[in-house]
UniProtKB/TrEMBL annotation:
PROSITE patterns: PORPHOBILINOGEN_DEAM. One of its GO terms (biological process) is heme biosynthetic process. This is Hydroxymethylbilane synthase. Residues 2-203 form the Porphobilinogen deaminase N-terminal domain. Coiled coil: none annotated. It is an enzyme of class 2 (transferase).
Length: 295
């Protein structure tokens, strides 16, 4: 039996459930194993995401995995620290849409919201881009699960911006006002991708069954795209809360760093297949053009 380690939030359980179902479809027995993380507690307390640090959602899961409490762990790839951890190997299942979505009062698009509207979002990356797009609106940081954030519409917020992936996985995409094109708001590196980790070969609690499971789960292009995007973060020594965006397709790549106050941005784009080297090249360009002053 493969035990799938997951956080206990509705979104995390849904994501892990997709992994479980994929493994069962491949003829493996699998079940979920819930691990409570400090990140869940900070989210419940409403602590701004920029203050909680890198790895707050992932470290407890990794500890449980290394200890043999579960066979594999499911993360949102964008939440993992960029530094490689030699204790583990990972797979990336097929990625879902990486873009952001807007929920708004009366389904008014972001560009048409009245001046003075209150817009909530959790990521400094989004805050900087939305402030640049709508300097006449007020953008505020929010925490909480998807339902909690959407529930603030019509109360203290006129619009909420979230990652489309989580909304889609929870079945609430039909309620969204619009999906923002990547030319409008650049997604976070690896947004929409899951990372499924297992204990690496030769390490204590390594499982041949778990190693086989990640071979079943891995989707090559999703994996390559996510790795290329995360190389930007790694080269900039930035974490998942930095105002950095990156988005790769099968034949193009773009990246950017955004001042949180919306005053400035540095962007880079190229054609070609997504590779880790492309991500490093993007980061070098961004650094040379003042990106570090914006973070």
């Amino acid at each position: 039996m493969i035990r799938i380690g997951t956080r206990g939030s509705a979104l995390a359980l849904t994501q892990a459930g997709h992994v479980r179902d994929a493994l069962i479809s491949a003829g493996l027995e699998a079940e979920l194993f819930t691990v409570h993380t400090p990140g869940d507690a900070s989210q419940g307390a409403g602590t701004p995401v920029a203050r909680i640090g890198v790895g707050v959602f992932t470290q407890t899961l990794r500890t449980a995995l290394a200890a043999g409490e579960c066979s594999l762990a499911v993360h949102s790839f964008k939440d993992l620290p960029t530094a490689p951890d030699p204790r583990f190997r990972l797979a990336v299942p097929p990625r879902v849409d990486a873009r952001d979505v807007v929920f708004s009062r009366d389904r008014i698009p972001l560009a048409d919201l009245p001046a003075g509207s209150m817009i909530g979002t959790g990521a400094p990356r989004r805050m900087g881009q939305v402030r640049a797009l709508r300097p006449d609106c007020t953008v505020v940081p929010i925490r909480g699960n998807v339902d909690t954030r959407i529930g603030r519409l019509g109360k203290d917020l006129d619009a909420v911006i979230l990652a489309r992936a989580g909304v889609e996985r929870l079945g609430r995409l039909g309620e969204a006002t619009e999906t923002l094109d990547v030319d409008t708001v650049l997604p976070a590196p690896a947004q929409g991708a899951l990372a499924v980790e297992v204990v690496a070969e030769g390490k204590e609690n390594c499982s041949e069954e778990a190693l086989y499971a990640i071979r079943v789960l891995d989707h090559e292009m999703s994996h390559r795209r996510a790795i290329a995007e995360r190389a930007v973060l790694a080269s900039l020594n930035a974490g998942c809360t930095a105002p950095v965006g990156a988005y790769a397709t099968e034949d193009s790549f773009r990246a950017g760093v955004f001042a949180v106050d919306g005053s400035k941005r540095v962007t880079w784009s190229s054609e070609g297949e997504p590779t880790e080297d492309i991500g490093h090249q993007a980061a070098e360009y961004l650094r040379a053009h003042g990106a570090m002053d914006l973070m």
